[in-house]
Amino acid sequence: MPHFSYVAAESGHHRRRHDEPETHYEWAPTTHRSHSRRQEVRPVEAPDFRFCVELGLVIRSRKRNHKTVTGLEDEISTQLTRAGIANHLASTHTSPVSSRQWTIASELCIPSRPNDHRFGMKLVSPFMRFAKRPEAWQAELRGVMHALNTHFELTTTHQCFTHIHITPVSGYWELDQAKGLAKSALYFERCLDALVPPYRRKSVWAKSNRHNHYFEGLPMAECFGRVDAQATCEALGARMNWCGADSPTGVALGVRPGADFQHDAYRWGFVGLNEGAGLGAVAFRQPPGASSAGDVTAWVLLVGCLARLSCGAGVALDPAVKPQLKSLGEWLVYEAEWCGVPHKGLLGDLVRQAVPVTPAPGTLAGRDADAITIDEDQRLRWKANDRDLVLEKYRRLLKHV
Fold this sequence. Notes:
The protein is α+β, with helices and mostly antiparallel strands. It has helices spanning 69-82, 134-151, 175-187, 189-193, 220-228, 233-240, 248-252, 293-311, 325-338, 345-352, 374-384, 389-398, and strands at 23-27, 41-45, 49-61, 87-89, 102-106, 119-124, 128-129, 152-155, 161-168, 242-243, 261-262, 268-269, 282-284. The longest helix has 19 residues, at 293-311. Residues 1-41 are annotated as: Disordered.
């Protein structure tokens, strides 16, 4: 059985184009493993999303030996402009950055090597529609990555990342939608862990939601109950990203004993919902640094399709059934086909290349590292006061929604 109560149309049935009404179909609940009997089908509404990509990479110019990050920022901006990509530098914008252009900035969590002219950089995309004219955002990602790879050397370290931020097209979340995505984040955590390198499963920048200080690895049914108990999106966001004061992150930040707190560096970042009234963006922060358009596109496809599956009206997960990456992957690929997103094969490739997570004897699967490095300790403090460029873009976006 698929773990979502959600079903593909039978062979030969009409498939909706991306510009048709967003009505999906759902299998009636059943306990049978066999699909030999014909199932009742009923419509399910699935929302569309806007997304923003945040790329963290180590970058060096192929032609110039920049001694400072400002020179590299200027060259990146120039080359993107020549490629027809609208952009600006965060360092020159004291007011909120644009929601319609790429933003270029240095990245505090990625170590730089000035002696080798390599710097930790961040590029933040505009907010783009996932299922409306998807060929447009895919072409833009290809253009950006082609310009970067042509003129710069892109390398990735363990601190590099690909963050995908999403928000419904309306600009705000219904509470049931946010809860649906939160349950998927908890339920499929081990499946999604299999898609990333081992170092992104133990990263202080992508801690486990499932094993945070609120859920603490409880049985999935109890986790779902705790999600359902949250009365507001803000409360849900806090519990999804609840960090213990005595955790390595809490100690690094100097949090007083017993003062547990919210922190955004979890696999799924829900602290953006602190905007209130359902406003804000949710981020999938676990993917590693991506140096090709195909890799970036695959992660966007995964997040967009999973969000649509998770937030559809009437779609449910069974906490008593162990999730399987293979069946999850099949439904994600089907969703990409259903909503007319090109290059769904990239999503299929991502799932096929997964490496199952096998915890060491005596360890708890999903538990984060018990200690962090001195460098990570310092960078956590630096990041606490860093600008939230995505939040600035989101607030600007609301003026145009």
